[in-house]
Amino acid sequence: MKVDPSLLEATIRRVLAQLPVERTGDGVFADMDSAVAAAAAAEREYLTRSMADRRRYVAAIREVMLDPDNLDYMSVQAVQQTGMGDVGHKYLKNKAAAELTPGVEDLVTEAYSGDDGLTTVEYSAFGVIGAITPTTNPTETITCNSIGMLAAGNAVVFSPHPRARDLSLWQVQQINRALRAVGAPDNLVVTVAEPSIENTTAMIAHPAVRMIVATGGPGIVKTVLASGKKAIGAGAGNPPVVVDETADIDHAAKCIVDGASFDNNLPCTAEKEIVAVDAIADLLKFSMVKHGAYELSADESSRVERVILADGRPALEWVGKPAAAILEAIGVEPPAGVRLLVCEADRDHPFVVHELMMPVLGLVRVPDVDAAIDLACELEHGNRHTAIMHSRDVSNLTRMGKLIQTTVFVKNGPSFNGIGIGGEGYCTFTIAGPTGEGLTRARNFARSRRCVLVGDLNVR
Questions:
Q1: Is the CB of residue 149 less than 8 Å from the CB of residue 157?
Q2: Does residue 67 have a pLDDT over 70?
Q3: φ, ψ for residue 379, nearest 5 deg
Q4: Which CA distances in Å does 69 have to 7, 15, 63, 95, 176?
Q5: Predicted local distance difference test score (pLDDT) of residue 1
Q6: Which of 130, 158, 183, 349 has the fewest CB atoms within 10 Å, i.e. is most exposed?
């Protein structure tokens, strides 16, 4: 029987991709000091490489992360290893991170010329960057940070979340092999075999690490801000979605269900609570049910609360679990296609004030749009992360945008449009609200340097 060579190759690649990761080699080191030392040596060699080389290295990362077998593997393994999220949505996120994260083209030079000569302002590398990645977006964050940080001329040391250890190590090794194949210095992207709090602490304190980038909760962001180094913090959010009486209600309902159920509500940008003007609240709920939501009765809401909360806070074992599983846990047969649970709640209900990171949303009624905007600002807790509004009134949209001051403000669309998935603009999974960089890109991982040539090269 004749065997199709391309089919055979694809099968071999798939099997090899799923082999257990080796604990060391290809960018994986036994301890943090060794990892940082290797990255520092790689960065020194990287200084000698051209911008064309950088473009080639970034292209290699994109190519290996966009390999269909690798996309499938990362998406399945992220759910299996962390116990959170949705495989199909992980696939979309991984693909967007590899395709839409800005590269070397983001490093635009400014120039000033006149009688006194020529001055350029250019983006230059920090050196070695320490990057802490979350369990919610483990592979997406490694992809987008690797592209952006290497595009800016840096080497990067990753400290992954322990729950995503095996997958993160596999990904670092895949990136290293791809970089080696196109002639990059070894160990531009490294990590440790056993991620831990101790290793993260050692990375933050290491003198060769010049910048710290943390994607996670408020605790880790506070830690990196206290490091005394240049720090970028991508912290938590509690994004409200406001719906006023002028909105296209059916469209708003579909967008909210799509956005709040995306990856089982794991993204910090996802809708976390609804603030609806009373006049349209009933129609909004009806339309949400039509698009895949399930409205909890008062009794069901109380039972869900007992399951997914622990001491009034989100129970970690339920983070990123599907809506159907939550219904099953309270003894309710989930309707076919259910993606989101919604219930009416008071403004101080745990489903409203806490970032659950589960497909469960509380809906609060308010008398008018001004009250809705004011409450949304309160519920966002000053995180300046993400907010969403559905309205056809430009004045209302403008007022909310000015008052809430979030890094991402999505108007008349699902929340994921704000990070480049289905919306205009580039993609990132490191959204720096606390430190102000916003949706990070290559230029955020670089220093601004001014180079002055006096008296010459002005030819006008």
A1: no
A2: yes
A3: -70, -25
A4: 13, 9, 12, 12, 17
A5: 43
A6: 183
Structure-token pair, residue 208: 């060769």
**Given a cut of 90, is residue 19 above it in pLDDT?**
no
- Other beta carbons less than 10 A from residue 12's beta carbon: 10
Q: How far apart are CA 337 and CA 322, in angstroms?
A: 11
Site of tokens 């049910």: 289
Tokens of 283: 């129609």
Yes or no: say if 309 and 350 are a contact pair by the CB < 8 Å rule.
yes
The token pair that represents 285 in the structure block: 């709920």
Strands 408-411 and 386-390: parallel
What span, in angstroms and rounded, lies between the C-alpha atoms of 441 and 428? 7
Name the pTM for this structure: 0.90
Q: How far apart are CA 112 and CA 77, in angstroms?
A: 50
Q: Which residues contact 392 (CB under 8 A, 6 or more apart)?
A: 246, 247, 248
Question: Which residue reads 């659950």 in tokens?
Answer: 356
Alpha-carbon dihedral angle through residues 299, 305, 306, 312, given to the nearest 10 degrees? -140
Q: Are 257 and 292 in contact (CB under 8 A)?
A: yes
Whole-number Å distance between alpha carbons of 384 and 442: 22
**CA angle at residue 330 from 327 to 336, to 5 degrees?**
25
| pLDDT over threshold 90, residue 5 | no
- CA-based nearest residue to 46, from 188, 225, 157, 199: 188
Q: Which of 155, 145, 217, 142 is nearest to 444 (CA)?
A: 145
Say what the pLDDT of residue 456 is. Answer: 86
CB 32 within 8 A of CB 192: yes
**pLDDT for the residue numbered 4:** 58
| Spatial distance between the Cα atoms of 139 and 37, rounded to a whole number of angstroms | 24
What's the DSSP call for residue 3? P
Phi, psi angle pair for 2, to nearest 5°:
-80, 130
